[in-house]
UniProtKB/TrEMBL annotation:
This is Cysteine--tRNA ligase. Gene3D superfamilies: Cysteine-tRNA ligase, C-terminal anti-codon recognition domain, HUPs. The lineage of its organism: Bacteria, Bacillati, Cyanobacteriota, Cyanophyceae, Nostocales. It comes from Nostoc sphaeroides CCNUC1. Transmembrane segments: none annotated. GO terms for molecular function: ATP binding; cysteine-tRNA ligase activity; metal ion binding. GO terms for biological process: cysteinyl-tRNA aminoacylation. Belongs to the class-I aminoacyl-tRNA synthetase family.
Length: 469
């Protein structure tokens, strides 16, 4: 999302907060005999390690709750002053009844919710005596013995969960933010409560857009820590799943939809990445053969700066049009000129970040390049002009980069190693025939899959021979 907005010419300030204090962290620290800080720090570092392996750009800021206690105090005091909060026995609660718009994000009405929750007692108010309404929520909690705690106007305690986000948004970004994101499981009560806390103070919308991602599911159930049905990013990467394959796994579904995690889905994302990677490496493999040098490979200053109204004089295509200038280029490949692929990609992404459709554009290009590559390898020529192929490749590299998908050969020989001659293919087919005769199907499947991975499909004929394309 961030890369796309930058590519469209927006300046993006992206703040991502860490909840470094909550009941689960405290329980873990107690179980381990360590401190809350120690547990939080360990998982924050683990998070950075994993997310960077996935090629996710760092946020502009990573505020933590424990670093924003005074901003939290200030907000709670303002809420109290305006009659939206009340203190009782060292706790402070938000009075939902006083906010007439409570429930507007999730489409719930307080009256309906109250009817459905009569007699309900929750863990924040174990005796059911402190809250005036069961949907009032804690802004500040009196400290229990042994818990980390801060002095406050209401006594020693710690912040409730929801207030941290309102306080950090206000402190770091201002009254209204453009986009607020988060998991769909947070719409109620978390985001609803954020709105309630922020908007009665600022009298402005908290966010212009809410982007809620669908849940990753396992057998149609949410993948979660508490259910224990999770596989971590690290487990997947450590067993050899490529970061880009994981990206594809996520991007192939629209972000608002659920995403079912299965081994088959990961395997199919890995296959998809092989196809895309082949396309992304095309220029490094065939640029020389097509007689147009390295196509900008090695030049690292393409298109820096704003995309608006600038003509890229370095564009290798003979034309007058404005070339695309991504805000954050990290590849050494020249940007493409305007073309229907770029338009389709942009149209899909402008439609609430429709990544499945935008990926289809990438695969169309990758498959076309694979076709060209096969022709060049096996016939030594193609009917399509070098300029056209060059544009297709540059388009693919740049659009893929907008989705954080990148592939660069480790060294120049690397790419060539993946190139098989006709004789190589025939030899592999023969080896596969031998394996099949010996009923070693694991070996024969491996050869077929390896060939498929580089774009060579084998077709077994009824007469026992194998042809390929
Ligand atoms: N299965 C999931 N798919 C997508 N996002 C998720 C999923 N589970 C949690 N999130 C998001 O991750 C963030 C952290 O959530 P949280 O710590 O509550 O995880 P959790 O696994 O649901 O925890 P627990 O099971 O202990 O309640 C939230 O933004 C949440 O919306």
């Amino acid at each position: 999302m961030r890369r796309y907005l930058q590519w469209r010419g927006y300046e993006v300030q992206y703040v991502q907060n860490f909840t470094d204090i909550d009941d689960k962290i405290l329980n873990r620290a107690n179980a381990e005999g360590t401190s809350m800080q120690e547990v939080s720090e360990r998982y924050i570092q683990a998070y950075f390690e994993d997310i960077r392996r996935l090629n996710v750009i760092d946020a502009s800021d990573y505020p933590r709750v424990t670093e924003n206690i005074s901003a939290i105090h200030q907000l709670i005091q303002e809420l109290e002053k305006k009659g939206y909060a009340y203190a009782i026995d060292g706790d402070v609660y938000y009075k939902v009844q006083n906010f007439s718009e409570y429930g507007k994000l999730s489409g719930r009405s307080l009256d309906d919710m109250q009817a459905g929750a009569s007699g309900r007692v929750d863990s924040e108010d174990s005796l059911g005596k402190k809250k005036q309404n069961p949907f009032d929520f804690a802004l500040w909690k009196a400290a229990k013995p042994g818990e980390p705690a801060w002095n406050s106007p209401w006594g020693v305690g710690r912040p409730g969960w929801h207030i941290e986000c309102s306080a950090m948004v206000k402190a770091l970004l201002g009254d209204t933010i453009d986009i607020h994101s988060g998991g769909g499981d947070l719409v109620f009560p978390h985001h609803e409560n954020e709105i309630a806390q922020s908007e009665v103070i600022t009298l402005k919308p908290l966010a212009r857009y809410w982007m809620h991602n669908g849940m990753v599911t396992v057998n149609s159930e949410k993948m979660s820590k508490s259910l224990g049905n999770f596989t971590t990013i690290r487990q997947l990467l450590d067993r050899g799943v490529e970061p880009n394959a994981l990206r594809l796994f996520v991007l192939q579904a629209h972000y608002r939809k659920p995403l079912d995690f299965t081994e088959d889905a990961i395997a199919s994302a890995e296959n998809a990445w092989k196809t895309l990677k082949e396309g992304l490496l095309f220029g490094y493999q065939y640029g020389q053969q097509l007689g147009i040098g390295d196509w900008g490979v090695g030049t690292r200053d393409w298109g820096l700066g704003s995309r608006k109204g600038k003509t890229n004089t370095q564009c290798p295509m003979p034309h007058d049009a404005t070339c695309y200038m991504p805000g954050n280029p990290s590849t050494a490949v020249a940007p493409p000129c305007p073309n229907p692929y770029v338009e389709s990609f942009q149209k899909a992404m402008d439609d609430d970040f429709n990544t499945p459709t935008s990926l289809a554009v990438l695969f169309e290009l990758a498959k076309e390049l694979r076709r060209q590559g096969n022709l060049l390898t096996h016939q030594g020529k193609t009917d399509t002009s070098s300029e056209t192929i060059q544009q297709q490749w540059q388009t693919l590299v740049h659009l893929a980069q907008v989705l954080g998908l990148e592939a660069v050969p480790k060294d120049e020989t690397d790419a060539k190693q993946e190139r098989l001659s006709n004789a190589d293919i025939e030899t592999l087919i023969q080896q596969r025939q031998n394996a099949r005769k010996q009923r070693n199907f694991a070996a024969s499947d491996l050869i077929r899959d390896q060939l498929q991975g580089v774009g060579v499909t084998l077709i077994d004929k009824p007469d026992g021979t194998t042809v390929w394309h």
